[in-house]
Amino acid sequence: MNWVRAYFDCSTDHAWLALRTQIRRDVDAYKELAGSLPGSPVEASYSDVQVTVSRRTTDSKVWVTVSLSGNAIVILTPNADNPNRPKAAHVLPRVNNAGECRLVIEGDEEEWEFWQVSRRILTPVLFFTM
């Protein structure tokens, strides 16, 4: 095991690129499958340091913003208690004992694969109402 390589490949920058790619794939898959369903379309914007995915419902707009911020990936979601102050969660990459790059969400020590974090981020937006 080349643990130095494993840590290098699991840097915040590398993890961000992998997560952003996974989110884009998942949003594209949703759009392809839901293309003929009635309802509000999903919108997504991507930049080098931020992804925003949103969906209008009949009475509100659900959204999530994921961004690279220093040594962490930050997830912002609406805050029902204070609409002017979104909820924030930090995601950190971690090399586990098997040498695999996994993500840990602030407040939850469980290790997540990239597709699992994408699912947790996107489910409220993509499947809020159908």
Task: Provide a descriptive summary of the structure in words.
By secondary structure, this protein is of the alpha+beta class. It has one domain (3-126). The chain is 33% helix and 35% strand. The protein contains three helices and seven strands. The chain has a seven-stranded antiparallel β-sheet. The longest helix is centred in the first third of the chain and has 23 residues, at 12-34. The radius of gyration is 16 Å and the shape is globular. The termini are far apart.
Q: Count structural domains.
A: 1
One letter per element, helices H and strands E, the order comes to HHEEEEEEEH
Structural class: alpha+beta
Low-pLDDT residue intervals, each spanning 5 or more residues? none
Number of helices: 3
Residues in helices, as a percent range: 25-40%
Q: What is the percentage of strand-forming residues?
A: 35-45%
Strand order of the largest sheet: 1-2-3-4-5-6-7
SSE inventory with pairings:
Elements (H helix, E strand, L loop, with lengths): L2 H7 L2 H23 L7 E5 L3 E7 L4 E9 L2 E6 L9 E9 L5 E5 L2 E5 L1 H13 L4
Antiparallel strand pairs: 1-2, 2-3, 3-4, 4-5, 5-6, 6-7
Helix pairs in contact: 2-3
Quick synopsis:
The protein has helices spanning 3-9, 12-34, 114-126, and strands at 42-46, 50-56, 61-69, 72-77, 87-95, 101-105, 108-112.
Features:
alpha+beta, seven-stranded antiparallel sheet
